[in-house]
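Hi L.,

You mentioned the student needs an example of a multi-chain input paired with its predicted structure. This one should do, with 322 residues in total across all chains.
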Amino acid sequence: MSSPQVREATPEDSALILHFINGLAVYEKLADEVDTNEAMITETLFGDNPKAFCLIGEIDNEPVGFAIYFYNYSTWKGKYGIYLEDLFVSPEHRGKGAGKALLVHIAGIAVKSNCGRFEWSVLDWNTPSIEFYESLGARAMEGWDIYRVDGENLEKLANNE
Amino acid sequence: MSSPQVREATPEDSALILHFINGLAVYEKLADEVDTNEAMITETLFGDNPKAFCLIGEIDNEPVGFAIYFYNYSTWKGKYGIYLEDLFVSPEHRGKGAGKALLVHIAGIAVKSNCGRFEWSVLDWNTPSIEFYESLGARAMEGWDIYRVDGENLEKLANNE
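Structure written out for the whole complex:
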């Protein structure tokens, strides 16, 4: 087995990316929430001026996982950061370093791009991932809660109703 | 008093934006963490291909607050979203609707851009803001923790050390 490699995804990977997205959703016990398809993946990740970016992890030229990230902004530092939206390695390929290879690759992009930080979210019951992330030097940002408006409430807010 | 107005920030607003950033940091009890300046604000928010965007709230043509947002990505939905990094209204101008006007404006951008969601983070002790956000239809995303790597640990990760 050669060491895991990371490459940029291309539009031809859209079906593969959808496969990984579904795998991740099952793992996170959120399979019912997946509401995307190949066409939407192609349009959003590979259209004009994309704002989110996908990497594919491979072992012996076989795709084993993926990561999707975008740039966020630290007002305090006046610098961009990178936010990792998703990271997934197929269960049968875990423990071979592909997840770490993806994280290392993105950390490299962050450093090269003069980003001040690299962040992601973790489900609080996901102890194996939390231990893995802490082993890489990540720390939990205590004291912050994320709020979300979507669907009908987003329309209402946009209309100031 | 006329109703609050929202306009896009310009490079000439960099000093004003820095003033608001410092005001927000004092409010969030994080004043020591501000490490930006006018030049960095100009470069990151008004340079080539900016990834974060600033709006100014005004009452009677006087700037009273600001918001900074960027686009994130919902893998489940195959859609972009908007993340509000910062929202601040000067203490002497609170209660006049400027904060809500900024949120409504950004929600409008989200809807027009076919974004699936509009999100932001709140310090968990900030009850007035939480009540305000919940009144607008936002809900807390339970069960997720944010992890961050920065500084020396980010360099180490990038170098796979």
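You could point out the following to them. The first strand of chain B starts at residue 5 and ends at 8. Chain B touches chain A through 71 residues (CB under 8 Å).

Best wishes,
N.
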